[in-house]
TrEMBL record:
<dbReference type="GO" id="GO:0004521">
    <property type="term" value="F:RNA endonuclease activity"/>
</dbReference>
<dbReference type="InterPro" id="IPR036866">
    <property type="entry name" value="RibonucZ/Hydroxyglut_hydro"/>
</dbReference>
<dbReference type="Pfam" id="PF07521">
    <property type="entry name" value="RMMBL"/>
</dbReference>
<dbReference type="Pfam" id="PF10996">
    <property type="entry name" value="Beta-Casp"/>
</dbReference>
<dbReference type="GO" id="GO:0003723">
    <property type="term" value="F:RNA binding"/>
</dbReference>
<dbReference type="GO" id="GO:0004534">
    <property type="term" value="F:5'-3' RNA exonuclease activity"/>
</dbReference>
<dbReference type="Pfam" id="PF11718">
    <property type="entry name" value="CPSF73-100_C"/>
</dbReference>
<protein>
    <recommendedName>
        <fullName>Endoribonuclease YSH1</fullName>
    </recommendedName>
</protein>
<dbReference type="GO" id="GO:0005847">
    <property type="term" value="C:mRNA cleavage and polyadenylation specificity factor complex"/>
</dbReference>
<keyword id="KW-0378">Hydrolase</keyword>
<keyword id="KW-0507">mRNA processing</keyword>
<dbReference type="InterPro" id="IPR021718">
    <property type="entry name" value="CPSF73-100_C"/>
</dbReference>
<dbReference type="InterPro" id="IPR022712">
    <property type="entry name" value="Beta_Casp"/>
</dbReference>
<dbReference type="InterPro" id="IPR011108">
    <property type="entry name" value="RMMBL"/>
</dbReference>
<feature type="domain" description="Pre-mRNA 3'-end-processing endonuclease polyadenylation factor C-term">
    <location>
        <begin position="487"/>
        <end position="706"/>
    </location>
</feature>
<dbReference type="InterPro" id="IPR001279">
    <property type="entry name" value="Metallo-B-lactamas"/>
</dbReference>
<dbReference type="GO" id="GO:0006397">
    <property type="term" value="P:mRNA processing"/>
</dbReference>
Length: 709
């Protein structure tokens, strides 16, 4: 088990956030988070105030091929409408997830978006019906509260309120938890669950900030204001226009109107329309997913066995062709931003009559007609003929049912979630700035403590980098786990990392517990050695001390095992060595090879061959060699000889230090220091120390003792 709590964070511990859209703006939401080499993209929207390529998030600013997972929070166009573009027209290769209802609605919604966005304006559509169809097949669905894992990234969807199918995501990468709210609401609603507080505390919260420090008037008051305004408009013979996004909040408004009409018989002759090309399909989806809605509406469904989305007083209208515009009526019509379509056409038609009323119930995005008209202009431009203006006399009211949290709700939620880092997204720059200041002053007493809350409000394409170090904990599995270790006992095994999960295993358990197969590499090398078997053995004994002779004296073949690792067969003038490859045995094999290659040219060999003293006890030769060397070699050359022998033994792991008095042997992360004048070895690893000392002893014994020894 290894914990790294005391180390300081390195570059791999850097969490990074970047908004490609939705940074200090509302629209084209797209955020990218990455940590430990894993990348998650959150949402892929378009900006409702723009069209064509200009409506996209800044996809060119990021290498989308690095994204592992893309999570879509909900079906609204500012969160989902550029998804087919990402999947079909960029180098994005990741997997895409959304909830079931989101996927069901997304299909119809984007089909309509393709038509609308391709129908007018000067820019080409972002993608075709075919793109939409092809990408749709590859979208995977998630259930609320079910945790998914994709290449080490874990994520769980939670209810976000807001619209049917909307999800908040808890994303976990290597122990770091990031919670993304998407658009969310905390208010009790007629059909939706309100947003859930996640059961675990994330390190980072990415929160929407649409309403900033704004505070909503209570829901009941808003409903009363809405129904009163509609009622009085009808009484004076006027028409009510409620521009809405086709799906989501529209259904909530319809539930309010249906209920009001049911309790006001005097209104029942007045028609309420729901006008959208998608009206029929959308209502079908809503009827299908009643089980995903809140307890209230599910109970109503169960008790009355009629679907709450089968309306008595509301008529669906696909287009204005079938609409008889005769007298008072209520029109809930898409699109919500009044940029084009049915709602815009009716606005222009009804604007000159002061008896009529326009009621804005959604959030109006900067740069759209829905936002401009809130300034109460006296005239508005015609959609079909921009040079013509239309007088505006109809009344304009804003009563929000947008299902975004207000300041009180957002701030209480941020408290409850308890993250120490809060990144604000999905808010206009000034609104977001105010929210940031309000939150900072709220948390001012925590400044400098470990409870401090940091707030970020990044602009698009400006990266937020936060250092995060997560403790690494390895699970001991298999035979290693059979006996719990005593306090302070070292547990040794193979550390296997898969998708950030660490396991410590015995090598024999690798296959069973990790699926990793182990293989043994046997290496073999043959060299030509003209010297006879006795000389070969003699030289090996000089180098390695006692060697194990496996063959009989009568055998023609000499078989020797060296340091229990390298097997040598010498026959005729061929020496073949064989060993099982690893760092240690490779080094020994290298040394054996070095000895074999030098046997024929060694002066000792020449001397022994000429004297014909082969087979004599090696000890006598030691003395002979020492005697010869004693007279001629200087200290320097003795060090050189010992050094050469160590080099032969340890290969590239051996390095003579610059001043020539010491040397270093590095094997993996172990290091041994050799001091030549003292003939000592310093090494924290007892095993390596012993090995080096053994070689040093033998090396020193075959060259002359150094001065003073
Ligand atoms: Zn939304
Ligand atoms: Zn949104």
């Amino acid at each position: 088990m290894s914990k790294r709590e005391n180390e300081s964070p390195g570059p791999e511990d850097q969490f990074s956030f970047v908004a490609l859209g939705g940074g200090s703006e509302v629209g084209r939401s797209c955020h990218i988070i990455s940590y430990k080499g894993k990348t998650v993209m959150l949402d892929a929207g378009v900006h409702p105030a723009h069209s064509g390529m200009a409506s996209l998030p800044f996809y060119d600013e990021y290498d989308l091929s690095t994204v592992d997972v893309l999570l879509i929070s909900h079906f609204h166009l500012d969160h989902a409408a550029s998804l087919p573009y990402v999947m079909q027209h960029t180098n994005f290769r990741g997997r895409v997830f959304m909830t079931h209802p989101t996927k069901a609605i997304y299909r119809w919604l984007l089909g309509d978006f393709v038509k609308v966005s391709g129908g007018g304006g000067d820019s080409a559509p972002l993608y075709t019906d075919e793109d939409l169809f092809d990408s749709f097949e590859r979208i995977e669905t998630v259930d609320y509260h079910a945790t998914m894992e994709v290449s080490g990234i874990r994520f769980t969807a939670y209810h976000a309120g807001h619209v049917l199918g909307a999800a908040m995501y808890m994303v976990e990468i290597a122990g770091l938890k990031v919670f993304f709210t998407g658009d969310y609401s905390r208010e009790a609603d007629r059909h939706l669950n309100s947003a859930e507080i996640p059961p675990i505390r994330p390190d980072i919260l990415i929160s929407e900030s649409t309403y900033g420090t704004g505070v909503h008037e209570p829901r009941t008051e808003r409903e009363t204001r809405l129904t009163k305004l509609i009622h009085s408009t009808i009484e004076k013979g006027g028409r009510c226009l409620l521009p809405v996004f086709a799906l989501g909040r529209a259904q909530e408004l319809l539930l309010i109107l249906e209920e009001y009409w049911a309790t006001h018989p005097e209104l029942q002759t007045v028609k309420v329309y729901y006008a959208s090309a998608l009206a029929r399909k959308c209502m079908a989806v809503f009827r299908t997913y009643v089980n995903m809605m809140n307890d209230d509406i599910r109970r109503r469904f169960r008790d009355s066995s009629t679907n709450p989305f089968e309306f008595r007083y509301i008529r669906q209208l696909r287009s204005l062709d079938k609409f008889d515009d005769l007298g008072p009526c209520v029109m809930v019509a898409a699109p919500g931003m009044l940029q084009n379509g049915v709602s815009r056409e009716l606005l222009e038609r009804w604007a000159p009559d002061s008896r009529n009323a326009l009621i804005i119930t959604g959030y109006s995005v900067e740069g759209t007609m829905a936002k401009k008209i809130l300034t109460q202009p006296t005239e508005i431009p015609s959609m079909t003929n921009p040079d013509t203006t239309i007088p505006r006399r109809l009344s304009i009211a804003e009563i929000s049912f947008a299902a975004h949290v207000d300041f009180n709700e957002n701030s209480a939620f941020i408290d409850a979630v308890g993250a120490r880092h809060v990144i604000l997204v999905h808010g206009e720059a000034t609104t977001m700035g105010r929210l940031k200041s309000a939150l900072l002053s709220k948390y001012t007493s925590r400044k400098g403590t470990d409870q401090e809350v940091k707030i970020y409000n990044p602009k698009n394409c400006v990266e937020v980098e936060l250092p995060f170090k997560t403790a690494k904990v390895a699970r001991v599995t298999g035979v290693l786990a059979d006996k719990p270790p005593n306090e302070g006992q070292l547990v040794t095994g193979v550390l296997v990392e898969k998708d950030f999960h660490l396991s410590l295993l015995h090598v024999n358990d690798l296959r069973e517990y990790s699926g990793i197969t182990t293989s043994v590499v046997t290496e073999k090398q043959t060299v030509t050695v003209d010297a006879g078997p006795d000389l070969v053995r003699y030289h090996l004994e000089q180098m390695f001390g006692e060697v194990e002779v496996l063959s009989d004296e009568t055998d023609e073949i000499l078989v020797i095992m060296i340091m229990n690792a390298v097997r040598l067969e010498h026959s005729g003038n061929k020496s073949t060595i064989e060993w099982i490859g690893n760092v240690m045995t490779d080094a020994i094999a290298d040394s054996v090879l070095a000895v074999l290659l030098s046997v024929d040219s060694s002066p000792a060999s020449v001397k022994m061959s000429s004297k014909g003293t082969c087979g004599c006890h090696s000890h006598e030769h030691d003395e002979g060699l020492n005697g010869e060397a004693n007279g001629h070699a200087k200290e320097r050359s003795r060090i050189d000889e010992i050094s050469a022998l160590l080099k032969a033994q340890f290969g590239d792991c051996y390095n003579l230090d610059a001043e020539g008095q010491t040397a270093t042997i590095k094997i993996e992360n172990m290091e041994a220091k050799v001091n030549f004048s003292e003939l000592t070895v310093e090494c924290p690893s007892a095993a390596l120390k012993k090995r080096v000392e053994a070689v040093l002893d033998r090396s020193a014994s075959i060259v002359a003792p150094l001065t003073g020894h």
